[in-house]
Amino acid sequence: MPLNDRSRRQQLPEEVASHVREMIISGEVRAGDFLRIERIAEAVGVSTTPVREGLLALRSEGFVEMVPRRGFVVAPFTKQDVQDLFWAQAQLAGELATRAAKNITPQQIAELEAILEAHQDAITQGDTERIASLGHAFHRKINLAADSPRLARLLGSIVANLPNRFYATIEGHLGTTQKEHPLLLEALRKHSGKKAKTLMESHILDGADHLIEELDQRGLWETDSEANVG
């Protein structure tokens, strides 16, 4: 099998998992709902095999459960789950920021400065997609500066639990990124690992509050009786 075909086959279950995560977190499907493999396959544009593989991956993440002879069902997803994901993310990202403050080079500082300048330009233009993209780039650059690839991969496995567009919503929240990213850069420039860690942890944990508010507004945690009021 050609290498690109093998790579594509490996990506398909990941696409399915991302699609179903978004269905769950957006409230399109709720705890206790059965997930129809054929319907998901049609929505993603794949065969049923990668759908099953993707759902098995989600079972290992706790997003779905398997009922014998009936299929996959959506598992409960709570506010505490969101807080736990962001807490774990904050611990790892904070440690990476500490290491980045120790290891960061003048060239990497210059690259972060360029990202912040572009970020400010995107804010001025009101380009929300670019704002989110540059927010991600800022964090990736810090993780790279930490020179701890295994720890960064662990962080990536946690980040993968939520669809990218929800992180984009958080990074697009100007009240946090516009204020906190420059403070982080200053801590890195001064090689202040303790300050960088504190700022990074606070920044990420603040993101949990924004996401919970966003999902509350979407009615994710409404009960059936609440959803039917009015």
Task: Name the descriptors.
Arc Repressor Mutant, subunit A; Four Helix Bundle (Hemerythrin (Met), subunit A); 2 domains; DNA-binding; WH-like_DNA-bd_sf; mainly alpha; 230 residues; 3 strands; single chain; disordered C terminus
Short description:
Helices cover about 75% and strands about 5% of the residues.
Structure explained in plain terms:
Strands 1-3-2 form a 3-stranded antiparallel sheet. Helix 1 packs across helix 3 (48-61), helix 2 packs across helix 3 (48-61) and helix 4 packs antiparallel against helix 10. Helices cover 75% and strands 4% of the residues. The chain folds into 2 domains: 5-74, Orthogonal Bundle (Arc Repressor Mutant, subunit A), CATH 1.10.10.10; 79-218, Up-down Bundle (Four Helix Bundle (Hemerythrin (Met), subunit A)), CATH 1.20.120. The chain has 11 helices and 3 strands. It is mostly helical and 230 residues long.
Number of H/I helices: 11
Gyration radius from CA atoms, angstroms: 20 Å
Distance between the termini: 57 Å
Report the principal-axis shape: elongated
- Biggest beta-sheet profile: 3 strands, antiparallel
Overall mean pLDDT stands at 86
Q: Given the helix and strand composition, which structural class is it?
A: mainly alpha
CATH-wise, what's the superfamily of the largest domain? GntR ligand-binding domain-like
Total number of β-strand segments? 3
DSSP strand content: under 5%
Q: What is the annotated CATH architecture of the largest domain?
A: Up-down Bundle
Total discrete domains: 2
